[in-house]
């Protein structure tokens, strides 16, 4: 009997597999080079959106993103944290804009009042954060705030700002100053010199609603004029 010959498997599938693996490795290498080493996907621009009082240059300097580094290596979280430290910044988002841009989107704090401290006039936002110093006139709609220790952790500050921001736009436009000796003693001064005794931060929305109605009734002659409007107990207002 003749010995049986063992059949050989064709070499072509093996060659195809090897070629496919080589191509895959090459593709991975090209992609890695594009992402990490090629100037094609490097940072060419840092774009800043949303700034009003800050300049784009201030934000770019704070972000610390270096042009020319691979975009994938840009530290967007670190950049956002650094920009967030700028006092006028309320929030910030830093994203990659492929193929070559880092986008820094800023939301600035909106001033609602101005406080005076040791000869300086500083803007304060609705949360009580003091964030900018001014030398000229305050922005439109920004009124003087008189409290002992302005800041987000001061109860008198938050009570006064809560009263101011709760007012309807047409009523708020009549306010020329707001003060608080404590969290239960907020007073608003109107353009014609009338005083509004607001009291505490309790029932703020109801007080705003009642004050709006009172001013309308006084303006139309339904109620007699009064120098002081006490809405500290909004269900039992006192005019005098």
Task: Please describe what this structure looks like.
There is one protein chain. The protein has about 240 residues and is of the alpha/beta class. It folds into two domains: about 40-110, Roll (Ubiquitin-like (UB roll)); about 110-240, Rossmann fold (3-Layer(aba) Sandwich), CATH 3.40.50.10960. Helix content is about 30%, strand content about 25%. The protein has helices at about 10-35, 55-65, 75-85, 155-165, 170, 205-220; strands at about 45-50, 90-95, 100-110, 110-115, 120-125, 130-135, 145, 175-180, 185-190, 195-200, 230, 240. The chain has a nine-stranded mixed beta sheet with strand order 6-5-4-7-8-9-10-11-12, covered by helices on one side. It has a three-stranded mixed beta sheet with strand order 1-3-2. The protein starts with 11 loop residues before the first helix and ends with a strand. Residues about 25-35 have low confidence and may be disordered. This is Cell division protein FtsQ. InterPro entries: Cell_div_FtsQ/DivIB_C, FtsQ, FtsQ_DivIB, POTRA, POTRA_FtsQ_type. It is found in: Cell membrane; Membrane. Pfam families: FtsQ_DivIB_C, POTRA_1. Keywords: Cell cycle, Cell division, Cell membrane, Membrane, Transmembrane, Transmembrane helix.
Low-confidence stretches: 26-36
Radius of gyration: 32 Å
CATH topology of the largest domain: Rossmann fold
Q: N- to C-terminal separation? A: 129 Å
> Main β-sheet: number of strands, strand sense, barrel status?
9 strands, mixed
What strand line-up does the widest sheet have?
6-5-4-7-8-9-10-11-12
CATH class of the largest domain: Alpha Beta
The helix-strand sequence is HEHHEEEEEEHHEEEHEE
Counting helices, strands and paired strands, the structural category is alpha/beta
Q: Say how many strands there are.
A: 12
